[in-house]
Amino acid sequence: MYENEKTKLQKIIDDSTNIVFFGGAGVSTESGIPDFRSEDGLYRQKYKYSPEQVISHSFFMKYPDVFYEFYKDKMMCLEAKPNAAHNKLSELEKSGKLKAVVTQNIDGLHQKAGNKTVYELHGSIHRNYCMKCKKFYDAKYVKNQKGIPYCECGGMIKPDVVLYEEGLDGNVINAAIRAIASADTLIIGGTSLVVYPAAGFIDYFHGKHLVVINKLKTGKTVNAELCVNAPIGEIMSGIKIK
Ligand SMILES: NC(=O)c1ccc[n+]([C@@H]2O[C@H](COP(=O)([O-])OP(=O)(O)OC[C@H]3O[C@@H](n4cnc5c(N)ncnc54)[C@H](O)[C@@H]3O)[C@@H](O)[C@H]2O)c1
Ligand SMILES: [Zn+2]
């Protein structure tokens, strides 16, 4: 399937020496982590509060118990393994062709697959800090605590994840934009491109080849040389590194 698209993508990869990948939740659905906006994404599931409400800063401060119930259940998928897309990106980095992954994901699967240069625009479930004494806690500790996780000092633990109403880390933004701006090829994959400011970062790309691999149409119109509406694992796994 998608032989024509795979051939075109291969030609682009062969012609590239500085690839950057920009991705979102759709990269991890094949690892069993639900995204937000697909048919079976979290926005279509029924809760008392919408996911957007629950993972906002004000909601976290007001109802940390409800926040943690949702967050631990739906967003902390600690058993998830990298899929074919993550693995190909890791191979591409090792070969020297891929210079960075810029991701909106918080699951840490790119690092698990072996990628070294990963700019996590929205933070990570794997980093958690006490709000009082700043002590670090890993994801396993947070997930295994009953209800709200607390530090040994009594402070509440907060994930190092960018919640709605919170700003992105300036250093991460700068590094991500620098990588995108200097790339010769940008591959955008598994993202609806509706979450800002992240979606706007792709506008810094001025290289040769722009590729989009996404199951559904993206929210933001991208003038791509190649647009593939297909599962990203299948498309990426077809890439041969020469
Ligand atoms: N895995 C995670 O870390 C995770 C999971 C859910 C949400 N989030 C957060 O939610 C926000 C949502 O924005 P978003 O744009 O990343 O996600 P989104 O849910 O808005 O969009 C996901 C997009 O990926 C596409 N998609 C789904 N599975 C795919 C596949 N196998 N192959 C190709 N395309 C596929 C869908 O068609 C959709 O357009 C992000 O900020 C992110 O931080 C992260
Ligand atoms: Zn503490």
UniProtKB/TrEMBL annotation:
Enzyme class name: transferase
Pfam families: SIR2
Catalytic reactions on record: N(6)-acetyl-L-lysyl-[protein] + NAD(+) + H2O = 2''-O-acetyl-ADP-D-ribose + nicotinamide + L-lysyl-[protein]
Gene3D superfamilies linked to this entry: SIR2/SIRT2 'Small Domain, TPP-binding domain
Entry note: cofactor: Binds 1 zinc ion per subunit.
Keyword annotations from UniProtKB, A to Z: Cytoplasm, Metal-binding, NAD, Transferase, Zinc
Protein name: NAD-dependent protein deacetylase
Organism name: Lachnoanaerobaculum gingivalis
Source taxonomy: Bacteria, Bacillati, Bacillota, Clostridia, Lachnospirales
Gene name, Swiss-Prot/TrEMBL: cobB
